[in-house]
Amino acid sequence: MADPWLALEFGADPAERIAQVGAAHEAFLAGEASGARVRDVVRRSWERSARLDPEATVPVDLTDGALESYRAAHPLARVLPLFRDLLGGIAQDGAHLMAVCDAYGRLLWVEGHAGVLRHAERMNFVPGARWDETHAGTNAPGTALAVDHSVQIFATEHFVRPVQRWTCAAAPIHDPASGRLLGAVDITGGDHLANPQSLALVRATARAAEAFLAQATPAAPDAVHVTALGRDEAELRLGTRRIRLGRRHSELLVLLLDHPEGRTGEQLGLDLYGDDRLHPVTLRAELSRLRRALGEELLDSRPYRLRMGVRADFRTVVELLERGDVAGALRAYPGPLLPGSDAPGVARLRRRVDGQLRAAVLAGADADQLAAWTATAAGADDLAGWQALARALPPGAPRRPLAVARARQLAGEYDLTRATSLQRRGH
């Protein structure tokens, strides 16, 4: 198949394909192997959805005034006229629906053919309902959000049986300034949507929405961005300029970003050098050089602080976690904060960011998120993470033997380390 995100190959018989995938779905639910070929994106989604009841009813999170307030404040509200212009008429004429959801799979708007709307209400495909994979299993908007890619889901590819009479195509939409996932746009209807045109249509609509948002909220020319995750030296982007900072300046900038209220010279010295190595003259010299690198207008003193808002990648991770967007935080996390730094303040902040992300991933027990965490430098040797991943993956999942083996290997290494430590203490 030229495009793995398309549901049907050219010339395929839809009825035959529905039967083949339906049989594979039933075999999957029974824990049996199936000879039927199922797209990788669908099979992986089934694995993520395996804990869900296949007869589940999708929950409704928001209704009435709470829903109105929430979607009125959502960034995609500004793009609604464009969605209606590009998809609204087609949905009416083609007997299907246009839907827009947020980054958590919560439907914001569902519009289209009146008869199709009534049928969709029976499965809670309504504004305010949660159609992420955790609550609705495999479906186009939920899966598009999970894999961050446009996708088509056809009939029996849906995990929850009441949804298997439908076919849908969806594409994710990102904030053009930060890259943050905002939601997805979807068209839902009958089997006639299983064609390349429907997938191309939602892809084009998502790109048009991002272009609209970029034009409506252009980046400020003096915007300041700091990248410090997964690298020993931070990079500063000041407008169109890119400045790679040295180790000490990277540490100082990160410490100032972590304390927007400001720090005294003594506090910065303790965070940078530790209790027994205070060097006021050296610190003032480093701050003077940092001020020259940043510009006089950016760094203030008494206390030392940044005068204007500066966006930093490690703060983005924490903000996403605070909003409950664990998947988004993982996507924004390339590795530990300034991993080569031994400055006490940076080390504390690094442990805090990694600890918050780790705790959120372990609490969610989501197989894909656990796999993403154990693939990072911070999670590669995390015994609890690998054990949780082994538990989260269903029997027969391709990744499960690797997770089980890695968990056993780490457990053995930890037991050996503990035994060696006890022997040393005994001597």
Automatic annotation (TrEMBL):
<protein>
    <recommendedName>
        <fullName>GAF domain-containing protein</fullName>
    </recommendedName>
</protein>
<dbReference type="Pfam" id="PF01590">
    <property type="entry name" value="GAF"/>
</dbReference>
<dbReference type="InterPro" id="IPR029016">
    <property type="entry name" value="GAF-like_dom_sf"/>
</dbReference>
<dbReference type="InterPro" id="IPR003018">
    <property type="entry name" value="GAF"/>
</dbReference>
<feature type="domain" description="GAF">
    <location>
        <begin position="116"/>
        <end position="210"/>
    </location>
</feature>
